[in-house]
Amino acid sequence: xxSGHHTTVARPRGMSVLLTTAILTTLSLxxxxxxxxxxxxxxxxxxxxxxxxxxxxxxxxxxxxxFGWQPRDPDSGESQSAYEIVVTRAAxxxxxxxxxxxxGKVTSADxxxxxxxxxxxxxxxxxxxxxxxxxRAGAASKWAAPASFDTGITDAEWKASWIRRTTxxxxxxxxxxxxxxxxxxxxxxxxxxxxxxxQYQAYINGKLVDRGPAYAYTDEGYYQxxxxxxxxxxxxxxxxxxxxxxxxxxxxxxxxxxxxxxxxVVDHADGSQEVVLSxxxxxxxxxxxxxxxxxxxxxxxxxxxVDGRLAQAQEGWTSPGFDDSSWQAPQVVGVHPSGVFTHxxxxxxxxxxxxxxxxxxxxxxxxxxxxxFGRIIPAMPxxxxxxxxxxxxxxxxxxxxxxxxxxxxxxNHDNQSTNLSYSYTEHDGAQTFQAYTYEGFRYLQISGxxxxxxxxxxxxxVQHVAEDPDRAATFxxxxxxxxxxxxxxxxxxxxxxxxxxxxxxxREKGQFLGDSVDISRALxxxxxxxxxxxKAIKEFAESQKRYWPDGRLNAVYPNGxxxxxxxxxxxxxxxxxxxxxxxxxxxxxxxxxxQVSLNxxxxxxxxxxxxxxxxxxxxxxxxxxxxxxxxxxxxxxxxTATTARTTVNILAVDVLRxxxxxxxxxxxxxxxxxxxxxxxxxxxxxITSKLRRADGIYTDGLEADGSQSAHASQIANAxxxxxxxxxxxxxxxxxxxxxxxxxxxxxxxxxxxxTALHAAGRDDQVLxxxxxxxSLGWANxxxxxxTFTWESWEAPQTGDSLSHGWGATALVDLQQAMLGxxxxxxxxxxxxxxxxRDTALxxxxxxxxxxxxxxxxxxxxxxxxxxxxxxxxxxxxATVAVPVTGEKAPHAVGAGxxxxxxPRLEGIHDGVAVYTVGSGHSAFxxxx
Length: 928
Hints:
This protein is α+β, with helices and mostly antiparallel strands. Helices cover 22% and strands 30% of the residues. The strands form 10 sheets. Strands 20, 23, 24, 25, 26, 27, 28, 29 and 30 form a 9-stranded mixed β-sheet that branches. Strands 1, 4, 5, 6, 8 and 9 form a 6-stranded antiparallel β-sheet that branches. Strand 39 and strand 40 form a beta hairpin.
């Protein structure tokens, strides 16, 4: 994180040297700031896991880079006391490497999102960087192995023209190509910069080198940069080909216009350079897709029908020498920025693609093959035919469920009212069909193939946001059902994260704000994601600027239906920003979006009724969402006639508190911070004063006449505990009240029930809700054969989505309550580790990734007491709460804080011994 105070010791800029390694050698020999290790102390190892903007090798860094690393030290209980960063412009054929910035020795424990402080970096340029650290005793590490990054390009740098095929087609698949010749000198660096609305695949000399989405408004567009150094051939003909797909407005897609923009820069060893730009010299033609109807009226994907004969005629179009004489010149919109295409920004996320084969293939009586992929996947079907016959049409039906006769169900009820069919017309001989756009499905039926198909010839290309496997969380316990739930939650969050967060990969595919908050929290916990969350937070911030001067945010963004809000989705935003900061330590995003959160705070403030002190009829929403969605799709009896709703008011308290915390982080005036907190306290007091029954249970709100609602929902009371509204002396009674109701909150909000129960010390009920297969909940999804979290607990009966990632947020609660790991400061620099008490679990083990590294916990409990072992990354401290019997302290060995000799006992209270530990391995066993 980069929010702490630090001191910089200035260093002179270094001299030019030929190689980065020479710079490192020079630095290591100068002894600048080097301190000998103190007696008994070992110098730190070279830092590892270097990142820029939380990416290992970004190619389009915009603005000042933010550096990250993980300190490494052979000693336990260690922390970083200082760092030094050196950034070097990479050598080129015409210029030696040049050091551009040396931070000097900076006294700081910061290790993530550390801002660059040197002169402006050149656009479209390669840089290397390294870092070293000092431990708490002042010993310096060796320099880290250099890492690299490229800067992106500005709008003015493109020099390329937006082009497109002239067509009135609403589902536009266009092939665009350009041949070019390179010099004979070796290619030492080549970068392809590309943007296309709304999807594209890019090829160099017949090889697929990049795929990208651009679901954004044309004044907020995205581009990607790709390293194609190994793909461009020196001394001859080359070809670049782009297949782009534009299919108009839909959920997650604004209308705007189609277009493609490309810039390829090729550098040679002799100092020469070629730049290939999209312009009127390119050739374009229609792809082999046939006109089809919408799959549904929400997401507005079109059905895919491909003519393999046309595809065969176009074979080789991405390679040099292809005859494109029948193609046409493109329509040239103009040199970027031009027309509606006014701004591009770097795409900070990438997608991952994995080809999988079915776990089972069944042949029906009519010869159709039915493939079962074992779980719901977001994927593109892929079929290989050995004996194609020209003109023969093969029909495909994907789906979520099987019909009674074993065929794939095509009913609207089972498939989110979505037509999941495809068709492919063969040419003669061997061939492969692969769909272009992903859909969610489990089963795939192939009819009319005319040849037997098995698992080797049937596949699906699974698509989701790329994840770093080193960051993936792990979990196992004594309860097999809990283990299966953990797997369900992690997979659902990952599969529901594509080019943007989704409600579902089938019906709508839109980035809804409430869904995004839920899935984001699960993805940060389960996959260590930061960039997808940052991207979405920025996008919703843009929605406020585009549509909502009163402080609201769009309910879906980007989107084809424009201005549209849901009030309590808007209320979720400031708390989401804070969750991101807690996970990442990225202060810059807090600063960049603070005004957006403050606008949300002012929005809810305007609807506080002076007579009651409560937020009343919070403006926004329409139909079922008017004045707030509350919960969805089942509200379990919540009194929607209330005008001062308890849920809306509690979320408003969180808005004010989260905004105040952000204000404090970025150094806003104290008066502003105090005013936000004072308003939060007043609203909290009004909620407790006016919305509780005499027994302390919270009702659903106030009716229009000022009377209390007669209904006391689970969600109102869970919120009161989860958001810290309920007075301490009522927590136990409220927890018992909501526990007796089991689960009467939809997957959208059910995580707050778990948060509430955990906060009240009822981990036994957290475990029950996660593992009870006989009543509503996650285990019941598994018991009914589900493989993805659902839109509602009743989805099989109601026809709601069987692939809705918002239920995955429970992963955060599982990690906190069942494994026992909670982040307590930004970036996870401090942790709380507290295994559950009084549950049926006998052991659990797992890992959670933080910016400092991986935290590992293993605990067991039985007749002889509780044993806990923890592994804490360098530069991190943790409190460990070990259940004990009586006042006998456990036997503790391992890492003390700040080099102390062993874990430090802070005290024994209420059957728990609390220790503070530093980095390294610590173990606690029952005292004898």
